[in-house]
Amino acid sequence: MGEKWAGLAARREAAADVLLAVAVLAFAVPAVVFGRSFPALPFLAVPWWAQIAVGGAAAASMLVRRSVAWPVVAATVACALLTGQTMPLMLAAYSMTSRNTVRSWPWVTAVLAGVHALADYTSPYTDKLPVAVTVRAITLVFLPALVGTWVWRYRSMIRELRAGVRAREERAAAQERRRIAGELHDTVTHAVTVMVLNAGLIQDTDELDEIRKLARNIEDKGVRALTELRELLTALRRKDLPPSAESVEGIPRLVEESRATGLRVALHYDVPEETLPRQAGHACYRVVQEGLNNVRKHAPGTDVQVVCEAHGDVLNVSVVNSGKSRAVPVRVPADAGGGYGLPGLRERVTLVGGRLTYGPTAEGGFALTARIPFHPPDHGEP
Asked: Where are the transmembrane segments (predicted)?
């Protein structure tokens, strides 16, 4: 669609230039043919064919006025001096400023106005009043030049606005892509990681009951992941949470799932679930989810401490591993996550007004910590 409109605009501009060229010819040629053209310099004897040639050159210069100014200026000045036709001077003044093709346009316009005044003063068909000649030169040459500067500034403003709109659209699209990548990472990676771990445990056990239990876990995680993906696709454009989005009440279940896959996880949980906004609770859930996933990938044999507690109007949530690894029979895909987790998690926490920090601990482990503000209701209000 953009290319179509650009093509139409180019054709309109070409048609306008052709019409201007025809108008210049209509002013210059009949005056020469019917003997009504008089050179601005009376001592010059200009043959009729030279006058027609100059008029044709001024008309032809209209076809290149949008790209370069000097052919238009030179041809119209010659046309005014040799034929006495001043209308092309007005077109030249407007063309050079509306396209900003001349830097020192006031000086060039002053020259055009002087040529116009000379041709007007020496013409036998006008008065010889210097004041009237000056007023006509200023009005008919400087005014089109000023209008051209306004047109150029208006076009520049429109171009800047369009460029700004495109830049904002590109930034919004990039933010949306990052948000979708983060949502998909948080939704899929946890479920797939747990399913892979359970599948690995199935290969290491011969007990039928244990195999059935692990298979049910795989099925449950797969069904839940599909449900979350379907809801995610409908909720992403509204920028709200899907109905199945977990809040802080899902953190104990995350811990139990991690324990079932071989991690040693201790949980300290003290959160007023009934007064917690969904956005803040969901951010806490994602912090714990990402922290446990990272432990499975990078330190599966360590002791893990998960803390989620509220102090006033701030939620403190952290996942810290001891760094003292012990051999455990777990298999985790090396490329699980793809490196999207922590940057996306930081954006998620920042969007709810919180702060996420992560890094190694003094004991050789790793800590993922978030502080998320929320505003509990005042129970003293009616």
From this structure: 14-34, 41-63, 69-93, 129-152
Strand partners, 269: 308
The second-level CATH assignment, the architecture, of 167-373 is: 2-Layer Sandwich (3.30)
User: What is d(CA 244, CA 232) in angstroms, rounded to the nearest whole number?
Assistant: 9
Q: How far is 322 from 302, CA to CA, in rounded Å? A: 6
Question: What whole-number distance in Å separates Cα of residue 157 and Cα of residue 199?
Answer: 61
* Three-class SS state of 331: coil
Nearest-angstrom CA–CA distance, 257 and 330:
14
- Give the number of C-alpha atoms closer than 13 A to the C-alpha of residue 252, restricted to the C-beta side: 7
Counted residue by residue, the chain has a size of 382
Q: What is the pLDDT of residues 216-247, one digit of tens each?
A: 877 777 777 777 776 666 655 455 566 667 78
For the stretch 193-223, pLDDT in tens is 777 777 777 777 777 877 888 788 777 777 7
Is the dihedral angle over the CA atoms 293, 298, 304, 309 positive or is it negative?
negative
DSSP class per residue in 139-179: IIIIHHHHHHHHHHHHHHHHHHHHHHHHHHHHHHHHHHHHH
**What secondary structure, in 3-state letters, does 22-76 show?**
HHHHHHHHHHHHCCCCCCCCCCCCCCHHHHHHHHHHHHHHHHHCCCCCHHHHHHH
Flag whether the pTM goes above 0.90.
no
- CATH 3.30.565.10 in the chain, residue ranges: 167-373
Tokens at residue 227, please? Answer: 């449900």
Q: Measured between alpha carbons, how far apart are the two ends of the chain, in Å?
A: 58
Q: What is the pLDDT of residues 297-342, one digit of tens each?
A: 788 888 899 999 988 888 999 999 987 665 444 444 444 444 456 8
The total of other beta-carbon atoms located within 10 Å of residue 262's CB is: 15
Residue 360 φ then ψ, to 5° = -70, 150
**What is the chain's mean pLDDT, rounded?**
80
- Spatial distance between the Cα atoms of 311 and 373, rounded to a whole number of angstroms: 10
Cβ neighbours for 241, distance < 8 A, ≥ 6 positions apart? 235, 278, 279, 282
